[in-house]
TrEMBL record:
Database matches in InterPro entries: PI-PLC_domain (IPR051057), PLC-like_Pdiesterase_TIM-brl (IPR017946), PLipase_C_PInositol-sp_X_dom (IPR000909)
Superkingdom, natural source: Eukaryota
Transmembrane segments: none
GO annotation terms (biological process): lipid metabolic process
Record protein name field: Phosphatidylinositol-specific phospholipase C X domain-containing protein
Length: 318
């Protein structure tokens, strides 16, 4: 009992120290970077606003959401706070400016986060199609994976092709160097990551796991995650020479041995430091590696930060 109490005291001290570290770093380094003062006039159509003929796929800083389809997961006020990472529907995330979706499914095609489940993947597809019907030049990266501990949904690759076929940008390394205008009217890069089923084949309508990578660490300590993100990002090749998407997640994760298990208060420890992260990447010379930047509970400022750096790249300012 005493050792457990001592451990919790040590964890609280570490958390307090790490919060202070990020706060002081923000005060000394600031959150200004090329394009940081840019705000898209229409987040729903921000890619169109930048000019589809000017925006190369590998120059985009893609605002993404982590565990995207968890807005209605579990039971409200009971199990939901332990698994909910977004408060908006898929459609409203896209309208807000999100362009990368992280969807986890189980055997019956229902979306899940661990053992908790929510609506069917059909609801996700419906929201995506609604958004695409209302816009003309917005490209989406849709990552779908079988959640850890679950089996792949039967014939899921065929399901995705049947549902999204007309929008799918086929797996092709040349896509990275193309502009949005060159890919239209195709609108979706769909990365399917099964656990046991065969990976999508090269040249097919779906992309395989090797085309979307990250270095996720399981921690609730914000400075630890921040530093890890910088370290792993700096080890990547610049976006102009990569043939895969690389994701950095501005999130921290509740830990089973910590009293605070609800997602929102834990992830808020790092949530407000997205602009600081981009500024730090610039100062350390690794901003040319930043590509997909994801968060929990996405807001307009996070989207604006990603779009701002994208704008600076297009204008030759970054």
């Amino acid at each position: 009992m005493g050792s457990q109490a001592s451990k919790q005291l040590a964890r609280r001290k570490a958390l307090s120290t790490q919060k202070k570290t990020l706060c002081e770093l923000n005060q000394t380094c600031g959150d200004v970077f090329p394009g940081s003062d840019y705000h898209p006039p229409d987040r729903k159509n921000w890619m169109s606003g930048l000019g589809p003929e000017k925006v190369h796929i590998n120059k985009i800083v893609w605002p993404g959401t982590h565990d995207s389809a968890t807005n209605k997961i579990g039971i409200p006020l009971v199990s939901r706070p332990f698994a909910q990472c977004q408060s908006l529907s898929i459609y409203h995330q896209l309208v807000r400016g999100t362009r990368v979706l992280d969807i986890r499914v189980q055997e019956d095609r229902r979306v899940c986060h661990g053992i908790l489940v929510t609506y069917s993947i059909d609801s996700v597809i419906k929201d995506i199609k609604k958004f695409l019907a209302e816009t003309q030049s917005e490209i989406i990266i849709l990552e779908i994976r079988t959640e850890f501990g679950h089996q792949d949904p039967p014939e899921f690759e065929k399901y995705l092709e049947d549902q999204l076929g007309e929008f799918l940008i086929h797996q092709d390394d040349r896509v990275f160097g193309k502009t949005i205008a060159e890919l239209l009217p195709k609108r979706i890069i769909c990365v399917w990551k099964p656990r046991k089923s065969p990976q999508p084949k090269a040249g097919g309508p779906l992309w395989n796991a090797g085309h979307l990578k990250d270095n996720w660490i399981d921690t609730d300590l914000p400075s630890t995650k921040f530093d890890s993100n910088i370290k792993h990002l700096s080890e990547q090749a610049p976006v102009t020479s990569r043939k895969f998407f690389y994701r950095v997640e501005n999130t921290v994760t509740p830990q089973a041995d910590n009293p605070v298990l609800c997602v929102k208060p834990v992830t808020r420890r790092i949530h407000g430091y997205a602009r600081l992260f981009i500024a730090k990447c610039v100062s350390q010379g690794c901003a040319d590696r930043l590509q997909i930047f994801s968060t929990d509970f996405i807001d307009e400022d996070f989207v604006d930060a990603c779009v701002g750096l994208t704008y600076a790249r297009i204008e030759g300012k970054a």
